[in-house]
Amino acid sequence: MSCKEDTGSYPKAQTMPSRFRHALGKHRVTIGSACNNCGHCVALCPYGVYKAGSRRPKVIAEHLCLGLSCSQNEFYCVSRCPVQAISLQLNPSFEVLGDRRWTADLLASTWHMAETGRLPYQDLNYKIGDSGGGFDRIRFIFPKQSSKEIPDDAISTAIELNRSGDNRPNIAIPLPLYLGGMSFGSVSIVTMLARVRAAAALGTFCCTGEGGYPDELVPYDDHVITQVATGLFGVREETIKRVRIVEFKYAQGAKPGLGGHLLGDKVTPAVAAMREAVAGNALFSPFPFHSVYSVEDHKKHVDWIKEINHKALVAVKVSTPTDVDMVVVGSFYAGAHIVQLDGSYGGTGAAPDIAKKNIAMPIEYAVPKVHTFLQAEGIRDKITVIASGGIRTAYDMAKIIAMGADGVCLGTADLVALECIRCHHCESGRGCARGIATTDPALTKLIEIEWATQRIVNMYLAWQRQLTDILKRLGMRNVTELVGRFDLLAHLDYIKPDEVEGELN
Amino acid sequence: MPPKYHIKTEPVPSRFPAITRSGVIAWDEGCLKCHRCVKKDCVYKVYEKRSLEVREMLDSLDTACKDCFRCVQGCPQRLIQKGLNPQYKALGDSYWTPEIIAALWSQAESGRIPVSGAGYGGPFAGPGFDAMWTDMSEIVRPTRDGIHGREYISTTVDIGRKVMALEFDIAGRITTTVPPLVEIPLPIIFDMLPWSPARRQITLALLEAAQALGTFVVMRQSEMSPDVARYLANVILYIDGDMEDLRGEILKNLLIIEIPDGDHVEEMQKFIKEKNSGTLVFIRMELNPTSAERAVKLTRDGAEVLHLVADEYGLEKGKDPCFIKERMREIHGRLVEEGLRDEVTLIASGGIAMAEHVAKIIICGADALGVDIPLLVAMECRVCRRCKEGIACPVELDSVDPLWGAERIKNMVAAWHSQLLEVLGAMGIREARRLRGEMGRAMFFEDLEKEVFASMGKRV
């Protein structure tokens, strides 16, 4: 089954430049006072770094500059400038950006994909971060020579979400990913709508998170997953009936075992109305579901949803405790179609640092444990395993599938596509200064919805391209062939490059 | 149910501006004098509130800036940049990292637990305490909510030797002598500082905080002074001189005395008990590869509390030293094997730098733990260790106001306490006592790596 049969074709990528005056890039290009405005640089640069100006050319897009590696090229402006007026250096602000997981390179390459829909050509590592473990130490073992080149259109990246064999509809998504819950309140309505619209355009889903189901989402019902979480904020019979997938959130990876907390500042009248609460008051989403203390209780929950909506698939979002494998098996027997494992390094609006770093295990451990356990139980083919909480790139996605997931669920990457800079201040004051995770009316206006939708679409188109290339290099026609192929991965701490046959990447 | 333990906190401003990770670099040259400068649009209004701290010439811009980069990206002439602060990078060392120090400062200032958005940005794992994760409960096991007050989670621990069974005579009277037991409301004591500038004011701050929190400060006999008299009920006196110097007065008021491990440890314990049978005796042992066997022997011989001490990096003595967490796991395990674990109390010290270390060292087998350097950091110490060389303290800790210092320490301990509740709550454990040795409720890096990653790349 190819994606085209299910969804027609993918939307087209469209250039969506940064909404700020200067995009952030790795390099800094400056034109000094020696410039005689000959315009040579404007003509030379194929990337559009310069624009003609009245006194001298303007540097309008230094983030598109190839950087020092350009020096080999015919069109290298620095050495071709007749009066040596151009200087090129690393951007000092760049090293302030990002952190060990989302390095400045990963941020900038995600921005590039969101802007252009294509892979970055600048000297940016778009595959791994600098966390020193997990994904960042794992590489694919690609065969040195691929047997026979498989054409792109013969490679399917689609997955099916209902593997249970019950009589509920089969839902297929053309990419092995959907977008995770971010509630109205934790992010702006524009951010929320942009994500849902991007999901609809790509033929996949986006979860509402636990903050109600704003009316603006109704046109996209078929691409919405509505969340039932412990606070039951905004959960109504009609919202459950409206959608094709309902998700129970038992826990979330960023604060496993702890409740949610929306600070009073973010509870604007609109948020309060949606959640049937009082504006200005902090809202707590308790932990756990006080109606669930066993797998039997859990089954009652699942049955309850299935009774209200006879067609919906049920997804269960859980965190990654020591006994995560037992939790998943329990969920399966309770009748869940999808289980989402949310690892501890994912993002959320606000979480205690101690929880993010220490409680529950990273997704790179949880998925293989669960996959192997489900295989031993003989039920791996009956349930869809989705990994989330720390998936940053197309490579992370492909790796976690090879480690046993069917697909992934994303959140932070979408926000980075909207130019989130990961300053980690989503929670403070008026919320996100860049207008993404805020309910402040003025800050919300910083984002335009068409722009935001297209940025997210662009990024995932670039991911689709990368996943297709990975499958092609591995000689696979279908992403489902990749599931659980530990033999195709190497962890650099435990295997030496000369021990493997193939290229590590 | 005992009354709920609550530490009252309120913001206690720092005396010096904090050293921040990055700074704002703004040039004037080439400024177009725009009608509406991007600096005016700062969401956090850092330019409007700008001020200069004259003592160290630190700009408030750097402390107030939250790295949103809007001015950097907005200035038409690109005159505003951000740069990493070399002073920040130079804070502490590879164990006492700038991130740890900055987080302790902010907890001591606010009394609140560190919260941030957008997920975790740190390394995947690391050495020592960063090589383990704690468990959580869902679906098959409930959790507890200790933070928002819906359920009570106790952090109280009992320090002392426990009798495993009571004995009675024919008339039904108890014949067992029950050894003294001290209850502390949170599993933290303040240990001796490995270094510091002149201690008088610092010690008073520690004592004042310990008294308010209901815990203890380990103090050298040689450092006793008349100032300390009113805090005796919160002092653990460490015998580093002549025992005969102990006056009756002090012995009567002291609840706990700590003695160094050595050949005469039994005699010393006996001597103290003879003076006052109600005094609890800690034996201070420097961790080394034979600590587990030593702990078994001392416990058999009637030790009440073993205070196991690593250096400030959490390392034991000797070549190729073992980290405190690993050694504690071994000691705890050996005592369990010998059926002795519940009789003795284990307190671990050295390298405890963050709230998560509290939970982790307890999981690895300690009943309670000692903190040292974080107490100084709460009072703005930069872990530069210049005091060790006799150079003046950059934050003037030698003249710190003890009451201010105590408030800062209380704030930090309150934040640690709340974080311990978070971890306990997520695990579904209602008592710090029951966290001890719960290694099955933790996940260790070595085990997971072996189970999951080591087999990769090998054909099945």
Structure description:
The complex is a heterodimer of chains A (505) and B (460). Chain A is of the alpha/beta class. Chain A is built from 15 helices and 20 strands. Chain A has helices at 3-7, 40-44, 77-80, 104-116, 189-202, 237-242, 269-275, 295-308, 324-333, 353-358, 363-377, 394-402, 412-417, 441-444, 449-474; strands at 27-31, 50-51, 58-59, 86-90, 138-142, 159-160, 172-173, 177-179, 206-207, 224-229, 245-249, 260-262, 283-285, 313-318, 338-342, 351-352, 384-388, 407-410, 489-491, 503-504. An 8-stranded parallel β-sheet of chain A has the order 8-18-17-15-14-11-10-9. Chain A is globular, with a radius of gyration of 23 Å. Chain B is of the alpha/beta class. Chain B folds into 2 domains: 22-85, 2-Layer Sandwich (Alpha-Beta Plaits), CATH 3.30.70; 157-449, TIM Barrel. Chain B has helices spanning 60-64, 70-74, 86-89, 98-110, 200-213, 248-253, 265-275, 291-300, 324-337, 355-363, 373-378, 402-427, 445-453, and strands spanning 22-26, 52-53, 58-59, 80-84, 115-116, 132-134, 157-160, 181-184, 188-190, 217-220, 235-238, 256-260, 280-286, 305-309, 345-349, 368-371, 442-444. In chain B, the strands form 5 sheets. In chain B, strands 9-16-15-14-13-12-11-10 form an 8-stranded parallel β-sheet. In chain B, strands 1-4 form a two-stranded antiparallel sheet. A two-stranded antiparallel ribbon of chain B has the order 2-3. In chain B, helix 10 (355-363) links the parallel strand 15 (345-349) and strand 16 (368-371). In chain B, helix 4 packs across helix 12 and helix 10 packs across helix 12 (402-427). Chain B is globular. The interface between A and B is large, with 102 and 78 residues. Strand 16 of chain A pairs antiparallel with strand 5 (115-116) of chain B, so a sheet runs across the interface.
